[in-house]
């Protein structure tokens, strides 16, 4: 029986492109805003573009969705993937348009990219390297490569061991976080061509 991949629909702008990319990677995807579907899912994917505050509000607006996600991931052990702002929401809080609480699954906060070199443009947009950190070299999903990024805020993790990969944009920026069965990528696998599809395939084959 095929696995149920729950792609959470909370109004994120990249929902359909992530859906198409997961299908291209071989997944049978259920796009859902139903917490009961999420509680029964084999894997959960949280997309996200735009501001941390707007995405957090959208997720909170779905009754019992965060409780369902938390139960399925932290009690049921389902593999979880957060993409772009979906990754940022894993933090304790975001500092975009005021202070907004996040899920608190990966300790840290989401801050504005503030390069010291004025030649470095914000947002960080375009293709950039994904460099896997030594302690995460054996992670089954995250590998070295080049991916597409588009963000003005970055994940400042509290614990270095939760960071799986970095990229460089005038300074080191977190490209991926990993904590148990929870994974988050700042880049857009749905826009990262062969590297992105390979990342999604590895996620679909991951049994943490």
UniProtKB/TrEMBL annotation:
SUPFAM superfamilies in UniProt: Class I glutamine amidotransferase-like
PROSITE patterns: GATASE_TYPE_1
Keywords: Amino-acid biosynthesis, Cytoplasm, Glutamine amidotransferase, Histidine biosynthesis, Hydrolase, Lyase
InterPro entries named among the record's database cross-references: Class_I_gatase-like, GATASE, Imidazole-glycPsynth_HisH
Annotated source species: Erythrobacter dokdonensis DSW-74
GO cellular component: cytoplasm
Pathway(s) this gene product operates in, as recorded in its UniProt entry: Amino-acid biosynthesis; L-histidine biosynthesis; L-histidine from 5-phospho-alpha-D-ribose 1-diphosphate: step 5/9
Function comment: IGPS catalyzes the conversion of PRFAR and glutamine to IGP, AICAR and glutamate. The HisH subunit catalyzes the hydrolysis of glutamine to glutamate and ammonia as part of the synthesis of IGP and AICAR. The resulting ammonia molecule is channeled to the active site of HisF.
Top-level taxon of the source organism: Bacteria
BP terms from Gene Ontology: L-histidine biosynthetic process
Main localisation: cytoplasm
Protein name (database record): Imidazole glycerol phosphate synthase subunit HisH
Annotated catalysed reactions: L-glutamine + H2O = L-glutamate + NH4(+); 5-[(5-phospho-1-deoxy-D-ribulos-1-ylimino)methylamino]-1-(5-phospho-beta-D-ribosyl)imidazole-4-carboxamide + L-glutamine = D-erythro-1-(imidazol-4-yl)glycerol 3-phosphate + 5-amino-1-(5-phospho-beta-D-ribosyl)imidazole-4-carboxamide + L-glutamate + H(+)
Pfam families: GATase
Subcellular location per the Swiss-Prot or TrEMBL entry: Cytoplasm
Annotated GO MF terms: glutaminase activity; imidazoleglycerol-phosphate synthase activity; lyase activity
Assigned EC number: 4.3.2.10, 3.5.1.2
Gene name as annotated: hisH
Subunit structure: Heterodimer of HisH and HisF.
Residues of the active site: 84, 188, 190
Span of domain Glutamine amidotransferase: 7-193
HAMAP family: HisH (MF_00278)
């Amino acid at each position: 029986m095929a696995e149920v991949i729950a792609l959470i629909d909370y109004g994120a702008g990249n929902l359909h492109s992530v859906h198409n990319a997961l299908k291209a990677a071989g997944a049978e995807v259920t796009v859902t805003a139903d917490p009961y579907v999420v509680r029964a899912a084999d894997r959960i994917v949280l997309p996200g573009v735009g501001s941390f505050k707007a995405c957090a509000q959208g997720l909170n607006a779905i009754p019992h969705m965060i409780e369902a996600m938390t139960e399925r991931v932290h009690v049921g052990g389902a593999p979880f993937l957060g993409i772009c702002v979906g990754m940022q929401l894993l933090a304790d809080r975001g500092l975009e348009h005021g202070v907004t609480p996040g899920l608190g699954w990966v300790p840290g906060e989401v801050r504005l990219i503030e390069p010291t070199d004025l030649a470095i443009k914000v947002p960080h947009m375009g293709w950039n390297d994904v460099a896997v950190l030594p302690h995460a070299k054996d992670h089954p999903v995250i590998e070295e490569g080049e991916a597409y990024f588009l963000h003005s805020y970055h994940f400042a993790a509290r614990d270095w061991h939760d960071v799986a990969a970095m990229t460089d944009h005038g300074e080191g920026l977190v490209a991926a976080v990993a904590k148990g069965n929870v994974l988050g990528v700042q880049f857009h696998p749905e826009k990262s061509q062969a590297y992105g599809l390979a990342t999604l395939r590895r996620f679909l084959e991951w049994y943490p």
